[in-house]
Amino acid sequence: MKQKTAERSDDYAYVYVVKNPACNDISLCAWDSVLYGGTPVMYDTRFGLDLGIVVGAAPQSGASYVPGPSEVRGACLHFGDDDDGDGYSSDTSEHQCNSCFHCQIAREPEKMLVDGDVTWIDHLATPSEMARYAENSEKEEYATRICREKIKKHGLDMKLVTTHFLLGEPKVIFFFTAEQRVDFRELVKDLVAVFRMRIELRQIGVRDESRLIGGLSVCGRDYCCHMITKEMEPVTIKMAKEQNLSLNSMKISGPCGRLLCCLAYEYDYYMEEKASCPPEGTRIKIEHELWRVSEINILSHMITLSASEGRTLSVPSEEISFNSATGYWELSEEYQEELFSAE
What we know:
Blueprint: E1 12-19, E2 26-31, E3 40-44, E4 49-57, E5 111-113, E6 119-120, E7 123-124, H1 127-154, E8 159-165, E9 171-177, H2 185-195, E10 198-203, H3 206-213, H4 224-227, H5 237-242, H6 249-252, H7 267-274, E11 283-286, E12 289-297, E13 302-306, E14 312-316, E15 320-323, E16 328-331, H8 333-342
Parallel strand pairs: 2-6, 9-10
Antiparallel strand pairs: 1-2, 1-4, 1-5, 3-4, 3-7, 8-9, 11-12, 12-13, 13-14, 15-16
Helix pairs in contact: 1-2
């Protein structure tokens, strides 16, 4: 029997991160017993009852941070540890991470109070449902081909991205992109005549298209929006400016043509670190001479000061502090003595 969230809002249960393999949505879902990563479940998505895969236990508020392995270099800590010594599995159809969990510390699920935006899992996916899911995956290729033929027939200015058959109810969703609104009423009639079930055409943006189909980004890894990002956060050019990155759109844009999602990852860190540093253009008095802050390197914790005649001086950021009594940024006297004694 389906467990409604409203009926069980005060219950304690195990909460998991569940990912929908069709649209890559990530949700928090509750269940009465312990589940482990890779378990297929049925739960309510924004499109209807559908299949989800348990990623792992949900993070708990207030839990201490557990860092990953510090010795990881490149793609994987255990890359090349197979018997052959060539770094590749003999089974080419199996992904190299399917049987390796060394680089990620598994956290045992714990019961917690279920509140907020948490969905109750309807039930664990049965073998028959998994078989039907495999059949639907094959039908999606056929449905995509048919829909593209109908789009061409009606001369609609739209691009079909992907197709998905819901597992929990007779419904097929067609995801498409378009620059303007599209009148697809006649298209829907044709599709209903072919598939004889509920048809939903959902318009998405170019960033959502990348999230659905996936691919390799400029860093050589899978799109963040496809693999790890829960929601599509806005990314602005200001984030690139604050990180002293090139403002060349070709260098800071992803394959979708929009600014790279990873620009937002370290933005908060840069802003937090810059709050303890003098802003660029600030003048600092050193030995009766005014120096101007010309550059702040957050990663190396160095501040570059400029003076007349093109002279520059690199100073550790911890040696410069704000004097609330005078209202000026100052270089520590100890560092000044060390600096000028070396000369």
